[in-house]
Design a protein that fits this description.
single chain, 357 residues, alpha+beta, D-amino Acid Aminotransferase, Chain A, domain 1, D-amino Acid Aminotransferase, Chain A, domain 2, 2 domains, ten-stranded mixed beta sheet, six-stranded mixed barrel, globular, binds 2-OXO-4-methylpentanoic acid
């Protein structure tokens, strides 16, 4: 039993680590899970019974409410090992705040800091050998909450579980992405849940994405639900453009996820005195900029993807090709700076890294 600052965690260790099965040289995203998971129960209006258990299948009734009505929310975060071998989490308190915003919107209980942060600390500490060291690689952390009532009436669950699982992984995209502007299907509407990490947001994106992939694109750019003119997000990422040396991204609101990588990129840009505009940006403006030569860069930002360069934007049957990565100076610089902060090679002036081991 480990006694943390404020919570007690019952620990059951795996009998034999699976780490030798992992090929650290060829990491992909999201397929291999490290030895342990963390779980806390919500019953009688309170969280308790924190446990660290061997990773594996969890018992679940087929009537579990999350499976039917989607009371399921998650976070994406990463742990990094720096050049000295120290392990840190990137901005974990911001993920804790965001999962609680998601919880509120989905009528679920938020997870207090002592469980969220202590759970991450203890889990990652125990599985710290699973944190990769290579540049671009990390231990992806997936905290999530699900409604667990065994009940198929439509109402908020009375019971929940908060889990954390972790997965060593490399880059989400291993090459610049070709994206299609989606003008038929929508991801989010005003008054909806686009600003939270509700699992259903991702499920609904699969069909339009599949159609785009059948046409040779990697991902789609979501447009506003009303007019399909304003560019909102790309796949699971926030979307940014550099036009005429100005960094432009959609403003936060009901339809945009408040990405922590988004915020980090905007913060670094402002530190570097790059002009930043958080405002609506239309496809017409992007095409005009492409035509007159002022569209310098387009990229997605996200925890999994970090910075994903966009190579081509497809719209109304035409492909608009962007400069190659070597020509996308701001996004290259910001990607390197973020990696350097995470690896302890650049000063962490905003205190983003939270050292745990
Ligand atoms: C993340 O960037 O962590 C995400 O949420 C994307 C994920 C769905 C792969």
């Amino acid at each position: 039993m480990i006694t943390a600052n404020t919570i007690e965690v019952k620990v059951q260790k795996i009998s034999k680590s699976r780490i030798n099965e992992l090929d650290f040289e060829h990491l992909t995203f999201g397929k291999i899970f490290s030895d342990h998971l963390f779980v806390v129960d919500y019953n009688n209006n309170q969280w308790g019974n924190a446990q660290q258990l061997p990773y594996g299948p969890v018992p679940m009734s087929p009537s579990t409410s999350a499976l039917h009505y989607g009371q399921a929310i998650f976070e994406g975060m990463k742990a990094y090992k720096n050049d000295k071998g120290e392990v840190s989490l990137f901005r974990p308190f911001d993920n804790n705040k965001r999962i609680n915003i998601s919880a509120d919107r989905m009528c679920m209980p938020g997870i207090p800091k002592e469980y969220f942060i202590e759970g991450l600390k203890q889990l990652v500490h125990m599985d710290k050998d699973w944190v990769p060291t290579a540049d671009g690689a990390s231990l992806y952390l997936r905290p999530f909450i699900i409604g667990t009532d065994e009940f198929i009436g439509v109402k908020p669950s009375d019971t929940y579980k908060f889990y954390i699982i972790t997965s060593p992984g490399g880059a989400y995209y291993n090459k610049p992405v070709k994206v299609l502007v989606e003008t038929n299907f929508i991801r989010a509407v005003e008054g909806g849940v686009g600003f939270v990490k509700a699992s259903g947001n991702y499920g609904r994106s699969l069909y339009p994405t599949k159609l785009a992939q059948q046409r040779g694109y990697d991902q789609i750019i979501w447009t506003d639900a009303r007019n399909h003119r304003y560019l909102e997000e790309s796949g699971t990422m926030n979307l940014m453009f550099v036009i005429d040396d100005v960094l432009i991204t959609a403003p936060l609101g009901d339809t945009i996820l408040a990405g922590i990588t988004r915020d980090s990129v905007l913060t670094l840009a402002r530190d570097w005195k790059v002009k930043v505009q958080e405002r609506k940006i239309s496809i017409d403006e992007v095409i005009d900029a492409h035509k007159n030569g002022t569209l310098q860069e387009a990229f997605g930002t996200g925890t999994a993807a970090t910075i994903a360069h966009i190579s081509t934007i497809g719209f109304e049957g035409k492909d608009y090709v962007l400069p190659g990565i070597e020509g996308q100076m701001f996004s290259q610089r910001v990607a390197k700076e973020l990696e350097d902060i995470r690896k302890g090679r650049a000063e962490d002036i905003h205190n983003w890294m939270y050292k745990i081991a």
